[in-house]
Design brief:
By secondary structure, the protein is of the alpha/beta class. Helices cover 38% and strands 16% of the residues. The protein has a seven-stranded mixed β-sheet with strand order 2-8-7-6-5-3-4, with helices on both faces. A four-stranded antiparallel β-sheet has the order 9-10-13-12, with helices on one face. A two-stranded parallel ribbon has the order 1-11. The longest helix has 21 residues.
């Protein structure tokens, strides 16, 4: 019955960093430095763990379908915004696409960037128009605006994955004032930079801002995403959402994590310190980053080759060769624990 599968899924899906882990283990490293997936290496907050444990007592019941307790906690943390939730940022993205995109509808994507936008749009039957960034990976606003002509939806990530580039608020406003479609602003890494886009959603009714609990809050395994949305859009998102999307343990863990300001502050300081060291001590050109990772040009090496060589030295990083329109000499390196970061700096100099 394989002939019934859609052609789209005969191709490779999202690319994970599993091959490098296999190389490291073959080289004898059972506990390599895991710097490929932009994870928070500190473990979850103790308050998040306690809250999650307590919630298990009621796990025989379905969670609130709108995750109202989490939404209320997020509003207390961020302020009075209209907020919806999803199963990770990926789940939020899929729900947004589901509300707007029919077969053959156009979606504009600022690239190179997170490849899941293209995969999710194609899975919904939409057609992606990729608009390349400038040579320094800043957004070419006028070209992006042209790409949005005739589109229903557009994706722009800031700080951008995998480049780390932070797009100025003024550029986002210029785009919003010039397009006739919805803009999804992916702010998965915004906690690690000094730029705040939240208030734009109160000013523009064609803006959705996606956020996640996976990075700064250390809950990648809990899969908790959310978004700031305009009031008019909220009921449509809720109608499209999978029933009981967020489980009760994830909701409880997220509420606990939000309450632990000290945990987040300590991690942000750690990221900024090591991000600076990666930029100054690696010996390679590092793109300016506002995220918990850096993108590094390892030319004349190829990214895939650098990943393999680093894996043999017990360091797992991500090749950027699979990112659309990006050259093949880049790697992405997450900020890990201090020992992992030290090991990376030693290994990158050796290769």
């Amino acid at each position: 019955m394989r002939h019934l599968i859609r052609d789209l899924f005969e191709k490779e899906g999202y690319v994970f960093a599993t091959r490098a882990m296999d190389i490291a283990k073959k080289a004898g490293f059972e506990n390599p430095a895991r710097l490929a997936s932009n994870e928070n290496p500190m473990g979850p907050s103790k308050k998040a763990v306690l809250s999650a444990e307590l919630s298990l007592n009621d796990s025989n019941r379905y969670p609130d379908e709108t995750a109202k307790s989490l939404v209320n906690a997020l509003k207390e943390y961020h302020g009075d915004y209209h907020i919806v939730t999803g199963v990770g940022m990926d789940g939020v993205i899929e729900n947004v696409i589901r509300t707007f995109i029919d077969c053959k509808d156009k979606v504009c994507v600022s690239t190179p960037t997170f490849s899941f936008y293209n995969l999710a749009v194609s899975a919904q039957g939409g057609e992606v128009v990729n608009v390349r960034r400038n040579e320094d990976f800043s957004v070419d606003c006028d070209e992006f605006i042209k790409g949005c002509s005739g589109a229903k939806l557009a994706f722009l990530c800031t700080p951008n994955n995998p480049t780390g580039t932070v797009t100025p608020v003024s550029d986002i406003e210029y785009i919003l004032n010039s397009i006739d479609c919805m803009l999804f602003l992916d702010n998965a890494y915004v906690d690690f930079c000094d730029t705040d886009y939240r208030d734009l959603v109160k000013k523009y009714d064609n803006l959705i801002i996606g956020r996640t609990m996976s990075k700064a809050f250390g809950l990648a395994g809990m899969r908790v995403g959310y978004a700031f949305v305009p009031l008019w859009y909220e009921p449509y998102y809720l109608r499209a959402q999978t029933p009981f999307a967020l489980n009760s343990v994830s909701i409880a863990a997220a509420i606990g994590a939000i309450s632990d300001d000290e945990y987040v502050s300590d991690y942000l300081l750690h990221v900024k310190e090591w991000r600076n060291r990666f930029e100054t001590e690696s010996g390679y050109r590092v793109c300016p980053s506002g995220a918990n990772f850096v993108m590094m040009d390892v030319a004349p090496l190829k990214g895939d080759a650098a990943v393999s060589e680093l894996a043999k030295k017990g360091v797992i990083v991500r090749s950027c060769a699979s990112f659309p329109t990006l050259g093949d000499s880049y790697i992405r390196v997450s900020i890990g624990e201090s020992w992992e970061n030290e090991l990376f700096l030693k290994a990158i100099k050796e290769i």
